[in-house]
Amino acid sequence: MGRISGEIEELMQQGKFPNGLVLSDVRNARLPLLTPKLIKQMFEQHIKTIWEWLLDDKVCRIGVYGMGGVGKTTIMMQVHNMLLEGQIMFRDVYWVTITHSSTNELQNKIAKAVGLDLRNEEDCRRRAATLSNMLSKIGKKLLILDDMWQHFPLDEVGIPLAGNSCKIIITTRSLDVCRRMSCQQILKVEPLPEREAWTLFLENLGNYEGLPMESMKIA
Fold it and tell me: What distances in angstroms separate CA 185 from CA 54, 59, 147, 175, one per listed residue?
C-alpha cells in the first residue's frame, strides 16, 4: 500500500506545471512579416495614429476598418514589424488571421499562436477558461486579429477583459463589427489617392517601360 501511495505521489508531482502547460515558439512570435517598401510612407499617418493609441494605457481595443483591399492588413503588418523591432511596448505580439472562423476555430488559432494545445478539450467554456488563464500569465501582450467578419464575445473566446495587460487590434470591413467588439478607438482606412496608388502599382509591377501599349492603357 505504501509503495502504491508513493507512486501516486510521484505521478502527481510529474503532472504539475508551475509555469503553465505551454509550448511557446518565440521564433514565430517574433517573426517579421513581409511588407512593400513604400507602405510605411504611404500610410504613415495611420501608423502614427495606431501607435499613439497603443501607447495609451486607457485604450485596450482598437478597430481598423475599410473596404476589401484598401490596405488594412498591410498597415497592421507594418505596425507588427515596428513593435518587434522596438520590443519595448509588449512582451509578445501575436498575429491571428480569422476570416469566417467559428468561436472554436478562433480559440484554436489563438491557442496555437501562444503555444497552447486545446485540441483535446471539447467543452467551449473550459477551453475559454484555459486560454484566458494562459494569456493572463504571459504579461503585457498584443493580439492582432486580422480579417474579422463577425464579432466575438471576448469572454466566450477566452481573451482576458480585466486590466490592460492584453490589447487587441482587429481589422475588418465593417464599422459595425468594430462597434460590437467595443473598440475604444476606430480608424477608417480610405483608398489611396491616385498618385500614391499609381506609385505603389509601379513599385510592385517592376518593369513598367516594357509593357505593351494595350497593357499600359489598362494599367
Answer: 10, 7, 17, 11
Give 173-201 pLDDT, tens digit per residue: 999 999 999 999 999 999 877 777 777 77
Indicate the residue type of 143. L
Provide the whole-model pTM. Answer: 0.76
Residue 81: closest CA among 14, 139, 32: 32
DSSP letter string, 23-59: ---HHHHT-PPP--TTHHHHTHHHHHHHHHHHH-TT-
Domain for residue 205, yes or no?
A: no
What cell does 177 get? 463589427
DSSP 169: E
| pLDDT at residue 97 tops 80 | yes
Residue 1 lies in a domain: no
Tell me how many degrees the CA angle 185-31-34 measures, rounded to the nearest 5: 75
Question: What distance in Å separates the CA atoms of residue 202 and residue 15, rounded to the nearest whole number?
Answer: 58
**Four-point Cα dihedral 92, 95, 101, 106, nearest 10:** -10
Supply the CATH number for residue 166's domain: 3.40.50.300
Using the structure block, give the residue that is written with the C-alpha cell 463577425: 150
